[in-house]
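Researcher: Checking consistency across runs. Here is Phosphoenolpyruvate-protein phosphotransferase again:
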Amino acid sequence: METTLRGVGVSHGVAIGEVRHMGTAVLEPPAKQIGPDEAAREQGRARQAMEAVGADLNARGHLAGGEAQAVLEAQALMAQDPELLADVERRVAVGSTAERAVYDAFASYRALLAGAGDYLAGRVADLDDVRNRIVARLLGVPMPGVPDSDEPYVLIARDLAPADTALLDPALVLGFVTEEGGPTSHSAILARALGVPAVVALPGAKELAEGTVVAVDGSTGEVFVSPSEEKRAALTEAAAARKAALAASSGPGATSDGHKVPLLANVGGPADVPAAVEAGAEGVGLFRTEFLFLDDSAQAPSEDKQVEAYRQVLEAFPEGRVVVRVLDAGADKPLDFLTPADEPNPALGVRGLRSLLDHPEVLATQLRALARAVEGLPVYLEVMAPMVADRQDAKAFADACRAAGLSAKFGAMVEIPSAALRARSILQEVEFLSLGTNDLAQYTFAADRQVGAVSRLQDPWQPALLDLVALAAEAARAEGKSCGVCGEAAADPLLACVLTGLGVTSLSMGAASIPYVRTTLAKHTLAQCERAAAAARATDSAEDARRAAQAVLSGE
């Protein structure tokens, strides 16, 4: 009998296939005691396993490239964390086996983060995956992970660790469904990058029986269990029609009445550039530079190394616009040479621009590298600072850019509610704004973007978030300056129309989403987008906002 379940659609497309479940997590090792003469051996085993898992995660990152590389390298830092290793060795010294010491040390760290309300609590899936990989290596059992199958399937999991998502084979994994996660979780972002249909935050997903046929609609968030032949045919037909429309879509982003909305790509490094160019990106709206710095958390990359990497991206978009975000370290992206190791709540502490202003030589080197990288290129370089809170922050960044001799536009990311509320003040110091809707939602609703239990508050359709977007866009328009969106909200075609109606001047997203957004924008006039935006803001919930905008744009 056909039934319908609803989660959060995070990656467009339709997948129909049999359910296969993610490999089960490693069982808890027995609490076996060892003698004092075995401690040194067990400590050595633990150390080797942690180093090996860290190296494996780094290798997976290099294979995956792009955004996935930064995520996996952050996981590798967890595996090789010296404080965790010291805790493991202490536990071995008092009688634990290597595997039990690892299990207990990670459990202690996990509980500490969750209890403190730390931002890193949102990375629990990542932390659990690292622990499971280390324990599996020590026990000599297969790593938990994607099931082996010769036939394509729909993958079901409680959550997907980045190490698994990054290397999914789209030829075998038709789509995936998770019980946890949210629209801006690592798995959701990587799914969009892969172009794999995905639904997250689906209650009861793990109860779907192995081998059951499901149809996953990554656009609506619906999962049809044992769909009828009629339902399969309808979904397949709709997917084919969308695919045909996408194939016919090309050119700059614009509404049907010619209002231009540049469609840009979010990239994590040179590896992401080919997909962006193929998708017809008009430039880069968010160039995350962290990938360079995560290669070695102990020291910043040299100026020459930075110049080489930046130039590879800049050269790919002649006459285009490339917006570079300077290093956004801290919270879930700690760097030994830059971020404090003992902050009780890093998300609300020294991160982003705050870290750079505390280490001006790191910021100055990066800005000089960008100035050198753009020399002689016909590209429009813009540089922006993450986590700008007020005009004082914006001025400090603009002053640093000028001191480095950077002849580019300077901008500020709006990720903190204070920046949206006082956007006009900030625009007295910088030339553009870029809305990071992922963090802006997180800070507006006090809802960690990685925690499935609060995913409804991370929904970018929340009217309160749309109000903040409107405030920033109105401020930019009043000052005659631009205001783009580079958060994941821009990847939702319907929401892209609403953002346009709110006054946003450009949209940046993962390359795979660009054709969907381009096609949808081209169907509606600017006036329709403005009416849809007003209708969405007049509601009191994300679901109602989406429904109201859809009604306007469909002519109901």
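Researcher: Does this match what you'd expect to see?
Model: One thing to look at in this run: The longest helix spans residues 39-64.
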